[in-house]
Structures are given as C-alpha cells and as structure tokens.
Amino acid sequence: MKKQINLRSMAAQAVEQVIEQGQSLSNILPPLQQKVSDKDKALLQELCFGVLRVLPQLDWLINKLMSRPMTGKQRTVHYLIMVGFYQLLHTRIPAHAALAETVEGAVVIKRPQLKGLINGVLRQFQRQQEELLAEFAQSENHFLFPKWLLNRVQKAYPLQWQHIVEASNQRPPMWLRVNRQHNSRDSWLTLLEEAGLQGFPHLDYPDAVRLASPAPVTALPGFVEGWVTVQDASAQGCIAFLMPKNGERILDLCAAPGGKTTHILEAAPEASVLAVDIDDQRLSRVYDNLKRLGMKAQVKQGDGRFPEQWCGDEQFDRILLDAPCSATGVIRRHPDIKWLRRDRDIPELAQLQSEILDAIWPHLKPGGTLVYATCSILPEENSQQVAAFLKRTTDAQLSETGTPQNPGLQKLPGAEEGDGFFYAKIIKQ
Q1: What percent of the chain has pLDDT over 70?
Q2: Which terminus of the chain has fewer CB atoms gathered within 10 Å of its CB, N or C?
Q3: pTM attached to this predicted model
Q4: How far apart (Å, rounded) are the C-alpha atoms in residues 299 and 287?
Q5: Cα separation, 52 vs 19, whole angstroms
Q6: Cis geometry, peptide bond prior to residue 257 (ω within 30 degrees of 0)
C-alpha cells in the first residue's frame, strides 16, 4: 500500500522539529521535498517558511480559540492547526480545500480521532476572523519577533527598528549575480527579457540583478552553463571591498556554500583561492558551485580559530572572513532563525568572531586586505567587534568603511534592497 502524502501534516511536523527540537529548516526541508512532486515542492516550502514567519500570530490565535494547549503526543496537531490558519490567512488556497486537506492531515499523523477538533477550531476562526485579527493587531506579539531580539533591535536602532522588523517579516526579493566571464550584466538582462522575465540592476554592485518576481532557476538564461548564480545583493558587496586581483593568493574563510568563492573567481579568474569551512557537509555545496561554474579552487575543512592546522604558516594577499554570526540580517530568507537563536548566543558568537579574527590576522601579508563580513545587524558582532579588534591590533588600519569610532558599513534589510549585512575593510600596515 502506497504511503499517503499530505503536505499539511509534513509542514506541521517540520515546524514542530524547528520549534521543539531546535533543528534548522535548511536541514529538514530538502529531504522532505524529495518525497513530493515538483509542483508540491514550492507549496511545502511556502507552508513551512510562512508558518515560521508569522508564528506568534498563529500561536496567539490557537490560545484564543482553544481552552487548553495540545501537549505530548498531540503536539503535532497544534502545528497542524497553525498550518490551517496560515493557509486561510496568508495564501490563495480556497478555504474549503485548505480545511479539507488540513483535517485529512490528522489521519496521516495517526490522530484521526482529532479530525472533528481541527475542523471545529478552523471553522470557529473563519467565523470570528475579523475581530480576532483586530485584537491581535493591538497585542505586543504583532511584531512577529521574539521579545529578546525585538529588544536588541530597538536598542541598536531606536529610529529604524520598525522598518527593520517589517522588512524581516516580508518574503525576500530574488537577487542574482551575473557571471562577468560570460556576459556583461546589460547583455544578460537583454537575454532575461527575451526569456519573458524582468530584472533590475543594482545601483552599487556591478553584477547584481533583482528579479521583478522570483522564478525557478531553470527559467534563467544560461543557469546550467554558469552564466548566473542566485546570491543576495548584500552578499555580493563583499567582493566590491575585497577587490581580488589575478595572480593573488586569496583565502575565503567560512566559505560554504561557496557563493563568495565563485564570485572571487569571476572577478579574478587567475587568482589562487583557498576555500575553508568547518562544516564538512556544507563544503559539498562549495564543490557543487565550483563544478557548475567550471571553476577550480582549493577546498579544505578547517576551524578558523586554528589556521596552522590547515595552512601551516602560509600568508595570503587577501582574506575574506564571512564570520559565523546570529544571521539576524537574513531572517526574511530563514525565518526559523527567529526561533532557533537565543539571547545568550550573541556574546558567545562575538567571542568566537574575535578568536577567529585574532587567529587569522598573522596569515595576512603586510599591505594585504582583510574584509570582515557578517549577515548580522547587531552591533556586538559588527561595529563593536571591529572597534575592539582595531584597538588591540596595532598594525590594523580601517579603510573605506566607516570611522575608527564607528567602524564598518552596516546594511539593513529593505523591501527592494539586499539583506542585512556588515562589512569592514582592514589593511595590514
């Protein structure tokens, strides 16, 4: 007998793994998507990402409509009801189909006795939707952020915090990087238009194109041949500061999944690049990216705190350190970050970043350039981190990015712009 597939119950179980077990959606979702048809892959992703994006709203509604929470083995049903709410509120799925499929999900997770309960809660929500949503809009949960993170963002950005929170709760724009070894950006934009799609060039970054609306990579001219790569505009900014040159020895540290490694080689195809990451599994994606783009780089598994283990006493002309961070600038791409991170993670990450900076600095040649980058928006990981490094490192000089008092350049997530990102360009004297 063929195992029944129900996207709603799959989404409910995936969200439960994120919230209850602290697992990353990037690890859970791909194997689940292997089990469903191509047209269902996108819907499964939309349900998982969407529920995590607006989780406080869905949680609040359940608490309003149910006298007591679902616990223990019934917990999956709690998340199944969330998936039901999400469809009714945030998708164009017809209400009758959303209800029927969600109720049917109870059978697949072996809770058929709860079909009536799920149906009742969803129908009650339909009847009271307007007044419930009006009440929710007045609650402190309506920012859709965990309290500790909201506090940190408000403290760091007293004037911009609402804009940041709003942008972080949106669906992200789709940014591409045109491979200048094959086409100029303008000529590729013409090919894109001929393919029936519309794109807009980024004002500052010469390879970046934003699609008017997201499209599958198979629809992009020359994707398979390596003419174009999916990469957020802000991540592309790293290369603008690194300025790699042919003939140089360049280290890309914390390199997985390899977007910046390949960007370095597009800008300087004759450079010799070493890509290092601590995560063996994610390194396989570096190989995949190099292969699709027909490029060669040295790839090694290694810990940034102990460079002597993977490069001896070698020195590099340029180092790109895309440091491990809270990823608070890319929440719109990875909404599970809001629920996986904890307040206590921030000082721990800042400590790790400073250890890597201190360990890798001796491996930069005199006159060389180090670009410190994160996809965080928190000062502890960014401007404060770099200020402390400059203070204790006598031969480090800030260049082009901020002032010694307020070092680095902080990008905030914006509806049509890139993700939240930070760069500091440091020269060794």
Answers
A1: 99
A2: N
A3: 0.95
A4: 8
A5: 9
A6: yes
